[in-house]
Amino acid sequence: MRLQSILFAAILFLGFSCSKDKEEQVDEIEIVENPVVEEMYFPPIGSDEWETVAPSELEWDESKLQSLIDFLEEKNTKSFIVLHNGKIVVESYLNEHSATKPWYWASAGKTLTATVTGIAQDEGLIDIDTKVSEYLGEGWTSATLEQENLITTKHLLSMTSGLDDSLGDDVSSGNLQYIADAGSRWAYHNVYVKLQDVVAQASGQDWSTYFDTNLKDKIGMTGSWVANNDLNVYWSTTRSMARFGLFVLAEGKWDDEQLVSKDYILESHNTSQDINEAYGYLWWLNGKESYHLPASQYEFSGSLIPSAPNETFAALGKNDQKIYILPSKKLVVIRMGNAADDSNFALSTFDEELWTKINEVIN
């Protein structure tokens, strides 16, 4: 039923295009740079202070703002924040939620893992082009040694490990079974969480400690990782999610400190492989000619979220946890809550509906 729900949602607003073989392989991935980041505001660390800017100052249509908030409340939203150049333009807490209550990021938190992987590479602890077994040892999957050694850290970042995604979230070696050579098949798979083990092994620290020291504390986030069966889920306040979105908008900087290289951030939100154009390093990418969805090998034609600007890239989590980033507009949009409609992995019909409403305000 989960697969059917996902496919049906995509069909409603984008239309289905039968899967097809690519006649031409992309030899080189084009990296699209963000506009120059200038005079961006960063809220102070260890403080509730956060500067605001009125929608009217940005020439937004404030008369449409209440309609947007009403729509969000109706769609089971708990919190919604819009930042412009780092300052808060809209901040709403709905359905008995508050600024101090944490909520789960679900798969939107994959982007935290991708970012910290980049920090570890910048420090020289890992190389994403190196095979995973170099860090975790041989036998971390049930594939043959030859098959396993094809899998690099970059394959985990781009969801192209070639391991069977139909076997559930269990990432024990016995459940990580070969289905195709690494790099030849895109599939949304919980095996990405092995990136956390790679960083832990390479740094000699447990994942949470390395994450806290190198990202969370340096940008003033709160929150923690919570084990949930085979998943490792991040929980935080909405403002902490907004801090992370701002950090990525600023191309890996917080104030004057470059915490992860600009080049890595740009790579992370550009197409990472030649199968799913709409996927970077655990980020979803709008404005591409086609895309794949979780639990499916179909290729869909068109843009991921047609109503959103083509430049938009997003962290998308189960039940409509959202971080949208729009570099040229200097916007970060955050949504947390329960599923707007039906339960979903990441993308849903809500993305399209929400952007239709947002456009009425900001355009």
What does it look like?
The protein is α+β, with helices and mostly antiparallel strands and 363 residues long. It has 11 helices and 13 strands. Strands 2-1-13-12-11-8 form a 6-stranded antiparallel sheet, with helices on both faces. Strands 3-5-4 form a 3-stranded antiparallel sheet. A two-stranded antiparallel ribbon has the order 6-7.
Number of helices: 11
Helix fraction?
25-40%
* Biggest sheet strand line-up: 2-1-13-12-11-8
The major pleated sheet works out as: 6 strands, antiparallel
Distance between the termini: 37 Å
Could you say which structural class the secondary elements and strand pairing correspond to?
A: alpha+beta
How many individual β-strands?
A: 13
Beta-strand portion reads 15-25%
Mean pLDDT: 91
How are the elements arranged and paired?
Elements: H1 2-13, H2 65-74, E1 77-84, E2 87-93, E3 103-104, H3 110-122, H4 133-136, H5 145-148, H6 153-158, H7 194-203, H8 207-219, E4 224-228, E5 231-236, H9 238-249, E6 253-254, E7 257-258, H10 262-268, E8 284-285, E9 290-291, E10 300-301, E11 313-317, E12 321-326, E13 331-337, H11 349-362
Antiparallel strand pairs: 1-2, 1-13, 3-5, 4-5, 6-7, 8-11, 9-10, 11-12, 12-13
Q: Which key features would you list for this structure?
A:
single chain; 363 residues; alpha+beta; 6-stranded antiparallel sheet; 3-stranded antiparallel sheet
Summarize the structure.
This protein is of the alpha+beta class.
